[in-house]
Amino acid sequence: MALALLGTMCAVLPPALSAQGEAPDAIKVAPASPVQGDTLIVIVAAPPPAAVRVRFDGDAVPVFSLPDGQRRVLIGTTPDVATGGHTLSVTVTEGTKAPQHYSQTVRVRSGHFGVRSLTLPPGTMDLVSTKNLDTEWRAIGPVLARRTPVAYWSGPFQAPSTAPIDSPYGVESVYNGHREWWHQGADFAGAEGDPVVAVNAGVVALAQNLPLGGNTVVLDHGQGVLSEFIHLSSFTVHPGDRVARGALIGRIGATGLVTGPSLHWGLYVNGRWVNPLFWLDPHPGLTS
Q: Tell me, what's the pLDDT at 9?
């Protein structure tokens, strides 16, 4: 993956951030040239008790601690995030010292997403109702709001199925001639009953049948990162279970809003559905 970064120092960073107090040593942002759907990784070398605040286009984003004392921020991008420049700002406060500010422009490139057109029978399309959407959100909303302070995952994620992907992330979804939404994950064209495994370590946050997702499992990987697996024929885990990378969590099915056996894997990062395939590769500060 390639992010063009234009850095502008607004103030001198405190010496605790790096030996020379230079921004590149104190604050690292990756990937170097992100596209829509990528996850931005911000590492700030400001160990406690320094306070660190980060904003992206003016919106506050969660800051988490790493075992080595550094801070990490994960910012999800989506097809709805405009291409071009975005402002990343970091504020570091040490004790009674004046806050130190750093601002940088992050340029996001187009993900060049396609379009998928699906024809659904009336009974299936009827599932997209206000009542079902409300039911779905009442169950899934509080789960996606979790911000567990520790990271359970380590290393690159693995695909939840060995089946081929037949519907990629980000494509515009057109149902029966009407645009509904962009695809918020990746679909695997497996057979009914094929195994579905945990993409990385985590805690089961939800295992429930929902009107649109059908049999649904959500894993909390920590630090605002959650995986959703939907349309399962069955699940083998329960809320609160700790699972390891590669552990069986369910089987592919055709439950909910789906045209046939399929597995949808969505990855939610601090409020945004990102491209889960980005997490299959090693990225310093994230999966390596």
A: 29
Q: What does the block give as tokens for 58?
A: 């003016």
Torsion of CA 79, 274, 179, 125, to 10 degrees: 180
CA-CA distances (angstroms) from residue 127 to 115, 180, 208? 22, 13, 17
Answer whether residue 25 shows pLDDT above 70.
Answer: no
Which range has the worst mean pLDDT, 31-40, 47-56, 226-235? 47-56
Order the strands of the 172-175 sheet from edge to edge. Answer: 115-118, 172-175, 178-182
Cα–Cα dist 136/131, whole Å: 9
* Half-sphere exposure at residue 226, Cβ-oriented, CA atoms within 13 angstroms: 27
pTM above 0.85, yes or no: yes
Domains recognised in the chain with CATH numbers: 4-108 (2.60.40.1590), 115-280 (2.70.70.10)
> Are the C-beta atoms of residues 227 and 250 closer than 8 Å to each other?
no
